[in-house]
């Protein structure tokens, strides 16, 4: 079923597991994520980066929504890292579950203003808003943020940011990086613990690819309830495609690609602890955005 993001994550927060937001680019990616979620009886989020929309167009959003509606487990459709109001409005009108209104490149004040400029329209449709405070380094789909531009999330600023915006989810920067970790990752759990103690909304960790299992488990223990995963799934797909013998039929190539991505997603679902979480989703008795209008 097409599910609301906030009830999925509130259940995860209450029961101390995390749900994966997996970036997809095409039908094979959508199939892989949904098949994995159905196999594991888990809630899941299909994430679309705006750069994937530049190729797939609004049809890619519609495909995700249609696939989610036809799935046997709760599937949210999430627009990832978007600062383009055209795509935000398009996603709202198509009925996604949540949107990351990404103003993390702006000052805190401008980030607050940007988030508040998109939430009324989203909330009016029951669509949750994710915002990020701080700035992550790394590379993702053409978005490159150098190390010197990175900023960790300040816990005190986070309280003010969550109070002053209508953001429903907060993405934190605690040493996490998009893409490949060039050095062994170190996450600032003292900072995360402080943020968790001060802020009530579900917390999100981007850049989950390449984090060792122990760090993932600790991050859940300190309050992360959504992990964003892209690189590991994408790499498994691309590496597998490169090994396929010439003259293989296209449907067979598609299946091989789906299988490669599905295995990674299933592993992550197990690691995040969301296996069998599908039953926790109850849209009817939960509010779907922070301001409780639903
Ligand atoms: P990775 O590519 O590092 O898994 O990060 C994905 C992400 O954070 C998507 O928003």
Helical content (DSSP H or I, runs of 4+): 40-55%
Parts with pLDDT < 50 across at least 5 consecutive residues: none
Determine the mean pLDDT.
93
The unique ligands bound to this protein are:
1,3-dihydroxyacetonephosphate
Please give the alpha-carbon distance between the first and last residues: 18 Å
CATH C-level name: Alpha Beta
Q: Structural class given helices, strands, pairing?
A: alpha/beta
Question: How many structural domains?
Answer: 1
Number of strands: 11
Contiguous helical run count: 10
Largest sheet features: 8 strands, parallel, barrel
Widest sheet: strand order? 1-2-3-4-5-8-10-11
- What's the architecture, going by CATH? Alpha-Beta Barrel
CATH topology: TIM Barrel
The shape, in one word, is globular
- Report the radius of gyration as a whole number of Å: 18 Å
In terms of topology, how is this protein built?
Blueprint: H1 5-15, E1 19-23, H2 27-40, E2 44-48, H3 50-69, E3 75-82, H4 85-94, E4 98-101, H5 108-124, E5 128-133, E6 137-140, E7 143-145, H6 155-164, E8 169-172, E9 177-178, H7 189-198, E10 203-205, H8 213-221, E11 224-229, H9 231-243, H10 250-272
Parallel strand pairs: 1-2, 1-11, 2-3, 3-4, 4-5, 5-8, 6-9, 8-10, 10-11
Antiparallel strand pairs: 6-7
Helix pairs in contact: 2-3, 2-10, 3-4, 6-7, 9-10
Bound molecules: 1,3-dihydroxyacetonephosphate.
Residues 23, 80-81, 140, 178-179, 206-209, 228-231 line the site of 1,3-dihydroxyacetonephosphate.
């Amino acid at each position: 079923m097409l599910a609301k993001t906030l009830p999925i994550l509130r259940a995860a927060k209450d029961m101390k597991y995390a749900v994966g937001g997996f970036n997809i680019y095409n039908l094979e990616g959508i199939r892989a994520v949904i098949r994995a979620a159905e196999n594991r009886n888990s809630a899941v989020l299909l994430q679309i980066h705006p750069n994937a929309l530049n190729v797939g167009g609004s049809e890619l959003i519609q495909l995700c929504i249609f696939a989610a509606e036809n799935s046997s487990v709760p599937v949210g459709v999430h627009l990832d890292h978007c600062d383009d109001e055209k795509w935000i409005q398009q996603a709202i009108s198509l009925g996604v579950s949540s949107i990351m209104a990404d103003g993390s490149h702006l000052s805190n004040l401008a980030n607050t203003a940007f988030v508040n400029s998109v939430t009324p329209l989203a909330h009016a449709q029951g669509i949750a808003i994710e915002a990020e405070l701080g700035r992550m380094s790394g590379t993702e789909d053409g978005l490159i943020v150098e190390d010197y531009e990175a900023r960790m999330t300040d816990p005190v600023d986070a309280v003010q940011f969550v109070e002053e915006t209508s953001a429903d989810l907060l993405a934190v920067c605690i040493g996490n990086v998009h893409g490949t970790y060039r050095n062994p990752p170190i996450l600032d759990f003292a900072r995360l613990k402080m943020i968790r103690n001060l802020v009530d909304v579900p917390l999100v960790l981007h850049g989950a690819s390449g984090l060792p299992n122990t760090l993932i488990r600790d991050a859940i223990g300190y309050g992360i309830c959504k992990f964003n995963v892209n690189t590991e799934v994408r790499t498994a797909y691309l590496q597998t495609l490169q090994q396929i013998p010439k003259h293989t039929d296209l449907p067979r190539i598609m299946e091989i690609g789906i299988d490669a991505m599905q295995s990674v997603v299933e592993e992550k679902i197990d690691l995040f602890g969301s296996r069998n979480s599908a039953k926790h989703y109850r849209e009817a008795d939960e509010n779907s955005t922070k301001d409780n209008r639903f």
